[in-house]
Amino acid sequence: MTAPLRLALFDCDGTLVDSQFSIIDAMTAAWAEHGLGEPDPLEVRRMVGLPLVEAVALLLPALDRGTHEAVAESYKQAFAASRARGEVDEPLFPGILDTLTALEDAGVLLGIATGKSRRGLDAVLKGHGLTGRFVTLQTSDACPGKPHPHMVQRALGETGVDGARTVVIGDTTYDILMARNARVASVGVSWGYHPVADLEAAGADRIVHRGRDVATAVLDLLEG
User: Fold this and answer.
1) Which amino acids are annotated catalytic?
2) What is the pLDDT at residue 75?
């Protein structure tokens, strides 16, 4: 009898890679282009994972939708220009490669659900030699943003995995709430962009503090 399929669905920014400085730099450039001064780096960090226009709207609540969209477009252009110049720095967090290998060795499928665009995600995966290791890629330009459950639901549809055999791994409350809305288990990681207390309050089933420990937490939830 074939064993049931299982899925580990990872966030990208703040979970797999540390992209905060490149994100803050691009947001700062977008602010400058529109004469808005400088954004608060801590507030920018807290918005990582949301759809871009929504994140800009939360950072600039006094401005209108048209301005939010224009600033978001400036951000995308600034980030793309930085990547073209080879200035984007998105290193993998320590232990992540070990976790991906351990999950694959245990027969768990790997996927991604991210607020990144598909172009940005493809660049990250190619840069780290990870292209092809994830069987489903859900991005902000194809799905409603977190914490809406659509990314999880679409990943389940593409892989044929049951929600009871799926775990979301992320660093923000948006990831944990997305998992709850989709009725799947979740692992919060402490090295990302939201405090552990917030991840716990959002309902994370496990909290891990080292990249290599993610696989153990995921397998524990799947086997439980």
Assistant:
1) 11, 13
2) 96
